[in-house]
Design a protein that fits this description.
Radius of gyration: 18 Å
Number of strands: 0
Distance between the termini: 25 Å
Structural class: mainly alpha
Low-confidence stretches: none
Number of helices: 6
Length: 133
C-alpha cells in the first residue's frame, strides 16, 4: 500500500513539510508551536469556565475542543504575528516551485520517490487552485 494514495494526500504532506521548513528558516521550533497552542487552549478553557458557571470542574470541559480552539486561535496570530501561508496560497506559489518542493521532499527519504513522482505528475497536469477542486 502506498503511503500517499491520492494527490490530495501528497499535497497536504508537502504542505506540512513546507510548514516545518518555514518554522526552521524563521528560527522557530515545534515546541514554540506547541507552547503557543497550549497557551491558547488554556485561555479557551478559562473563558469557557467563565462563560459557563456550571463547568466548574475540569472534567466538565471537553479537552479536545479546547485544544482545537487553541490551535485555531494560535494560527490567527502565529509567532509574534508571523506564520506560514495558508494552504490555498501555498498551492498558488511555493507548491509550484519544483526545486523548492524537491528539497522539501528529500527530507522524507522513506517516501521521497513516490511523493515526488506524484508531485511532478500534478505539476505537469497543471495544479488547480484549491477552489477549483
Amino acid at each position: 500500500m502506498e503511503l500517499y494514495a491520492t494527490i490530495v494526500e501528497a499535497r497536504l504532506r508537502i504542505y506540512e513539510l513546507y510548514q516545518l521548513d518555514w518554522l526552521m528558516s524563521h528560527g522557530y521550533s515545534l515546541m514554540d508551536v506547541v507552547r503557543g497552542c497550549a497557551e491558547e487552549a488554556v485561555i479557551s478553557t478559562f473563558n469557557t469556565c467563565q462563560d459557563n458557571p456550571d463547568a466548574t470542574e475540569v472534567y466538565d470541559i471537553v479537552p479536545f475542543e479546547r485544544v482545537e480552539e487553541g490551535i485555531c486561535s494560535w494560527l490567527d496570530g502565529g509567532l509574534g504575528g508571523a506564520c506560514w501561508v495558508c494552504y490555498d496560497e501555498f498551492l498558488g506559489a511555493e507548491y509550484r516551485d519544483v526545486s523548492y518542493v524537491g528539497e522539501l521532499v528529500k527530507r522524507e527519504p522513506w517516501s521521497a520517490d513516490a511523493i515526488m513522482a506524484m508531485y511532478l505528475a500534478d505539476v505537469n497536469n497543471g495544479v488547480p487552485y484549491i477552489g477549483e477542486e
